[in-house]
Amino acid sequence: MKKEYKLVAPDIDRLLNCFGRGHLNPSGITEKLDAAMKPLFEALLPLAPLKSNNEAKVIWLQIPRGDISDFDSFEDLKEYGEVKTYKEYEKLWKEEYPDEIKWYRLAIVEGKDLDGKVDFKAVALGNKTIISARMNENSKADYEVECKNDFAVALCELIVSAAKKSVELLKIGEYNKMVEVSLPYWFRTGVIKRTALWNHEPEIKKHDFDGLSEKTISRFRELLASGVNDENKIGRKKVFTANDFFRACVVGYKACGYAVEEKTPSELYLQYADGRDEGLTGTGCGLNAGPGIDFDDSAAWDSWYFGNRGGGHPWEVVPGGNSTHVELYVRHDENKIGYLFRSGRLTESEYKERQKNEGFYFGIAGKYRTFEVVSFYVALSDAGIPVFLNDAEEILARFDGSDYVGIVPHDTFPRYCESMFPDEYGKIIDFMHVYDEDIEKYGNDIIWLPQTEAELLEK
Q1: Strand 446-448's sheet: what is its strand order?
Q2: pLDDT tens digits, residue range 331-360?
Q3: Which of 51, 11, 274 lies closest to 159, judged by CA?
């Protein structure tokens, strides 16, 4: 028997749980899915598209939680061992749906071809993409896709009335006020001064120094105060070899306390680095395959460095997760000034003049691995190796506690979120989620950013 879904949060969540997270590759459209989308897209016709994407529209929906009878049945949860008593069942319901209203972000996309004909439509609800369809192609869906289409149809049909309600509130001038006042904090973006975090939770300060010694931090401060961390001031190496790169890696490894005895620089690089070296050492495979080069031959280095490389991570000298690695780039001015010349920003005479001073130097990146990048930077600088540290001032502000930490929505991974924050708070390099206990603890120290206001299309 087909289940009858209601416009209540538990049923919306049941349907959303049938979809994986992330983007669905576009597939063909079915008549049933097309028909289900039409009323939803029509409901949002008065809504203006995003300024950042004129094919997309976004609006918040408020869905009632319903009553306990809309929640998972007591008998099923008891059978699965989730609860033992009805009292526990009531408690679980209130924990999962504490508020009478649950918020969902609805996004629709309508793409057009060069002739202005709609050839793509997509619908996302909450953090799930539920439809991603090519309108000029019939669906050739298998059983699993057909099931998801049925769930998508059910969702579209359920939320039309909620979408219409939000648009009506926008028309009478109440929607944006409602969102600004009532949108739960876990959907919001904000900032908090780092010193405020330290005051509330002193252990965070220890974490922010990442185990660095006072001596290393003091030397780091001295280097930045001297103005030496400037790509226009540090020296250049006119002649460079692979072993120059490997030896610089070893200087950094030693500063970080890695074991460096009884192995050559290249062996240590192979031991500690990511390994996808684009054929540099001759040990890789696939995109990183290659015969390797003579580590002491500058011509061999130049041929490899300026050659047809790509697809690897030769500079990832300390591997990590998606955003926690350390990179020791080998940079060369030709990469920058050649681009400026080719794009017409430098004359030929200016280009040749700047070529006289060009050469190789190092760049360090990895702001989420403070211990390693600061240790690398101080050690290479003190060894007289030309090196530039990305985000140096921001790392120093972290040590001073003078910067802001970004608070991001719970469905946003707290990395690579710089673009979410206005310039008035400086360059934010650390991000976090907050929870009920944090809201109570931090109080007015959190500065919530205003919500982007929805607008109606001009008549």
Answers
A1: 431-432, 404-407, 190-193, 446-448
A2: 988 877 777 788 888 888 887 877 777 899
A3: 11
Nearest partner of 432 among 407, 398, 459, 458, judged by Cα: 407
Contact between 384 and 171 under an 8 Å Cβ cutoff? The reply is no
What's the burial of 22, exposed, middle or buried (CB within 10 Å: 0-12/13-18/19+)? exposed
C-alpha span between 300 and 66 (Å, rounded): 70
Tokens of 234: 């540090």
The model carries a pTM of 0.86
**Mean pLDDT of the region 43-61:** 96
Break the chain into its structural domains and give their ranges.
Answer: 9-65+100-183, 235-385
The stretches of 2-116 forming alpha helices (DSSP H) are 9-16, 31-43, 74-79, 86-96
Q: Identify whether the C-beta of residue 205 lies closer than 8 Å to the C-beta of residue 401.
A: yes
Q: How far is CA 322 from CA 15, 51, 127, 399, 433, in A?
A: 30, 30, 20, 24, 18
Of the candidates 364, 389, 378, the residue with the CA atom closest to the CA atom of residue 215? 378
CA-based radius of gyration for the chain: 28
Q: How far is CA 244 from CA 69, 247, 295, 304, in A?
A: 70, 5, 8, 14
74 token code pair: 């007591």
| Contact between 315 and 328 (Cβ < 8 Å) | yes
Total residues found in the chain within this entry: 459
pLDDT in tens, 111-128: 999 888 999 999 999 989
Q: In sequence order, what are the residues at sequence separation of 6 or more whose Cβ sits closer than 8 angstroms to the Cβ of residue 160?
A: 39, 40, 43
Q: Are 30 and 139 in contact (CB under 8 A)?
A: yes
DSSP state of 278: T
Question: Hey, what are 181's tokens?
Answer: 């006042």
User: How far is residue 378's CA from residue 381's CA, in Å, rounded to a whole number?
Assistant: 5
397 contacts: CB under 8 Å, gap ≥ 6: 194, 403, 426
φ, ψ of residue 27 to 5 degrees: the values are -130, 175
Burial 211-249 (b: 16+ CB within 10 A, else e): ebeeebbebbeebbeeeebeeeebeebeebbbbbbbbbb
Counting other chains too, the contacts that 140-145 makes at CB distance below 8 Å and 24 or more residues apart are: 140/27, 140/28, 141/27, 141/28, 141/30, 145/27
Integer Cα distance of 147 and 30 in angstroms:
12
Q: Which two tokens stand for residue 242?
A: 């692979």
Does 272 score more than 90 pLDDT?
yes
Instruction: Give mean pLDDT, residues 379-400.
Output: 97
Q: How far apart are CA 57 and CA 110, in angstroms?
A: 9
